[in-house]
TrEMBL record:
GO molecular function terms attached to this record: methyltransferase activity
Keywords, alphabetical: Methyltransferase, Transferase
Transferase is among the record's keywords: yes
An individual GO BP term: methylation
Pfam family membership, one: Methyltransf_23
Protein name, entry field: S-adenosyl-L-methionine-dependent methyltransferase
InterPro entries in the record: SAM-dependent_MTases_sf (IPR029063)
Length: 325
């Protein structure tokens, strides 16, 4: 149970003020992007991924990356990979920040990051390469990898078991794959989040909409079984409670919660609008009213809500065991 800070019971929080961003794009567009409801979406395999890829969403992605770093205490991964990996693959690389950091950490390794959108920077370490690709298509890599990494692919994947099978197939014997994703049904240990709160309603409705499209918005609890079914050995699972808002007493969780509140306010329009409008056929007026109530809930420090993050890694049998990072 997360202990609540004594100062957390004020209704509204303004740790970061209104979520807004003016950071410039990391890369100019090279494809004919699709625009909808004032947001920009990927053009390659149009409609496959429901989140935007515009500058605002890129900022949101980088905030998420910072949160993951805080959760993992500054580590880029948890798997005990070899000391000198030669080939590393980052699935759904987004802005490419994780791949770039891995390229700096392992200068002798070739690091490949793929994504549906070419939004990664051009100035990267010489050992880092970015590709536009759909990871649900058949992988065509000719050489296997020492380590395959994937995080936050919820609502991007329709066939998770096949994704795990392809990762297993394209690993070297002894190599590791690591997956990080959420259970997005929010909870509270002290029952301050109820089914009547807009935060909870949003979870239920977006999960329902994703399921209509054949996508799982809550893959986290299933990662371990998918890894085991694919043939991975020594499958290990770590579970983290990730609070929304700076209400926890624990200093680390308080910082994570403050950043997580910011990312939620930054990203809520992006991750809800497409699902609610395209799938559930909500009007824009209804969506905007919903978003306004949702923002109030995220800022309410009397609501002690959290999501649950799962980190799962496993090893392909054979070869040498990992040597840590």
């Amino acid at each position: 149970m997360i202990t609540v800070d004594d100062d957390a019971n004020t209704e509204l929080d303004s740790t970061f003020g209104d979520a807004a961003s003016d950071t410039t794009s990391l890369n100019s567009s090279v494809l004919n992007y699709h625009y909808e409801n004032g947001r920009r979406y990927h053009a390659y395999q149009q409609g496959r991924y429901l989140l935007p890829n515009d500058e605002h969403e890129q900022d949101h992605m980088d905030i998420l990356g910072h949160i993951f770093s805080l959760i993992l205490s500054g580590r880029l991964f948890l798997a005990p990979i070899a000391e000198s990996p030669q080939r590393i693959l980052d699935l759904g690389t987004g802005t490419g920040l994780w791949a770039i950091e891995m390229g700096d950490m392992y200068p002798s390794a070739e690091v490949i990051g793929n994504d549906l959108s070419p939004i990664q920077p051009k100035m990267v370490p010489p050992n880092v390469v970015f590709e536009v690709d759909d990871i649900e298509s058949e992988w065509v890599y000719k050489s296997p990898f020492d380590y395959i990494h994937a995080r936050f692919l919820a609502t991007a994947i329709r066939d998770w078991p096949r994704l795990f099978d392809q990762a297993f197939k394209h690993l070297k014997p002894g190599g590791y794959a690591e997956f990080m994703d959420y259970d997005f049904i929010y909870r509270s240990d002290d029952n301050t989040l109820t089914e009547n709160h807009e935060m909870y309603i949003n979870c239920v409705e977006t999960v329902r909409a994703a399921s209509v499209l054949g996508q799982d918005a809550c893959p986290g609890p299933k990662l371990k079984k998918w890894a085991e079914d694919a043939g991975f050995a020594d499958v290990t699972q770590h579970v983290f409670k990730v609070p929304y808002g700076p209400w926890p007493k624990d200093p680390k969780l308080k910082e994570i919660g403050a950043w997580n509140q910011l990312q939620a306010l930054e990203g809520l329009e992006g991750w809800t609008t497409a699902l609610l409008s395209r799938v559930l056929k909500w009007s824009q007026q209804r969506i905007q009213v919903h978003l306004a109530k949702l923002r109030d809930d995220y800022r309410d420090r009397k609501i002690h809500a959290y999501a649950t993050l799962y980190v799962v890694y496993g090893q392909k049998p054979g070869g040498q065991a990992g040597g840590g990072d």
